[in-house]
């Protein structure tokens, strides 16, 4: 039986209410003390874990605490600090270029809007949304692999049961944010990510332990 739009919306909000109870105080897993640190840490987090990024950023920011300092850094020195993250040569190049753009075009200040953020080297919509939501408390809905997987399995997306569809993060951001108030977008992303890491894992999802199993169209019990 096909689910009506009204029924789908009610189910989505009922499921999210459960996630809110399960994860009452979600927060960014990256350690940072200002918008610049979060921006750099988020760029570094590509293809690695937030936990691993947190092991290298203290030393990185001790040496290079702001955009001007990092823009003037030696690539070899930056590479030596972030080498444990993988893809360290490309990442070092990106964060140095990013810092130079910040220093030259924005007086070293991280901008507070999507257009300017995504004009920076190595910064896409996901990174920009992380910064907007967590550094500036502005509406931002980062779409990562966990968000893509969980919204698909929960049937929140219109293409969730189409095996031939290729998830488009920008389209997913547009679709899912229509169901929620902008003030909720950042916490929504955090909760979906945390749920994806702990329960709705890529391999062997823990459906039997999932608080959403009764209403999840993909649950394997």
Characterize the structure shown.
By secondary structure, the chain is mainly α. Helix content is 54%, strand content 0%.
Task: Map the helices and strands.
Elements: H1 5-22, H2 35-44, H3 50-63, H4 67-71, H5 75-82, H6 88-105, H7 114-117, H8 125-135, H9 145-153, H10 169-177, H11 185-198
Helix pairs in contact: 2-3, 2-8, 5-6, 9-11
Summarize the structure.
The longest helix is centred in the N-terminal third of the chain and has 18 residues, at 5-22. This protein is an all-alpha fold.
The major β-sheet equals: none
What proportion strand? under 5%
N-to-C SSE series? Answer: HHHHHHHHHHH
Unreliable parts: none
Number of helices: 11
> What structural class is derived from the secondary structure elements?
mainly alpha
Whole-number average pLDDT?
96
Primary descriptors:
221 residues; mainly alpha; 11 helices
């Amino acid at each position: 039986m096909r689910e009506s739009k009204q029924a789908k919306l009610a189910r989505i909000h009922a499921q999210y209410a459960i996630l809110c109870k399960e994860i009452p105080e979600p927060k960014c897993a990256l350690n940072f003390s200002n918008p610049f640190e979060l921006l750099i840490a988020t760029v570094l987090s590509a293809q690695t874990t937030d936990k691993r990024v947190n092991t290298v950023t203290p030393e990185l920011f001790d040496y290079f605490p702001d955009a001007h300092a990092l823009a003037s850094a030696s690539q070899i020195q930056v590479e030596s600090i972030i080498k444990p993250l993988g893809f360290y040569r490309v990442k070092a190049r990106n964060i140095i270029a990013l810092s130079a753009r910040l220093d030259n075009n924005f007086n070293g200040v991280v901008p507070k809007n999507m257009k300017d953020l995504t004009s920076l080297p190595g910064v896409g919509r996901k990174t920009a949304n992380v910064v907007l939501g967590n550094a500036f408390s502005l509406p931002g809905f980062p779409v990562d692999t966990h968000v893509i997987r969980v919204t698909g399995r929960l049937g929140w997306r219109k293409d969730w049961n189409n095996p031939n569809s290729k998830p488009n993060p920008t389209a997913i951001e547009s679709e899912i944010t229509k169901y929620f108030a902008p003030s909720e977008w950042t916490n929504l992303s955090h909760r979906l990510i945390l749920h994806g890491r702990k329960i709705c894992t890529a391999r062997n999802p823990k459906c039997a332990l999932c608080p959403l199993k009764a209403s999840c169209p993909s649950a394997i019990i």
